[in-house]
Amino acid sequence: MYYRIKQIDLDGHYTYSQVEKVLKSITNDITIYPNPCNMILNISTPANDQTSTIEIYSLDGRRVLSEQLTATNHKIDVHTLTKGTYMLRVFNSEKTFTTKFVRQ
């Protein structure tokens, strides 16, 4: 896929970024469960991936939670989040994994 960004200034002028090629690979390296969840969201990662950061975003783009991975099977307490759909982002210096989950 190819993407470019259109930036619109407050005065109505706009510019486009350069066109960038984005490769999306399907990976089973990271698993989240259960989805939907009530209290705890489990994140399972490969054994060598304990230097990653976990971020949860509301659908309006606000970051509502950020944690460092502490184990290959990491548990996140989501009971304080309001019910709804969220974006989960797990990333390190090499790769990023993003998916949606539902807090019931």
Structural description of this entry:
There is one protein chain. By secondary structure, the chain is mainly beta. The protein has a single domain, classed as Immunoglobulin-like (Sandwich), CATH 2.60.40. It contains no helices and 11 strands. The chain has a 4-stranded antiparallel sheet, with no helix packed on it. Strands 5-6-9 form a 3-stranded antiparallel sheet, with no helix packed on it. Strands 1-4 form a two-stranded antiparallel sheet. 9% of the residues are buried.
Main beta-sheet strand count, sense and barrel state: 4 strands, antiparallel
Strand content: over 45%
Radius of gyration: 16 Å
Helix percentage range: under 10%
Which structural class do the helices and strands define?
mainly beta
Name the strands of the widest sheet in spatial order.
8-7-10-11
In the CATH scheme, what's the topology name?
A: Immunoglobulin-like
Q: Residue ranges: pLDDT <50 for 5 or more in a row?
A: none
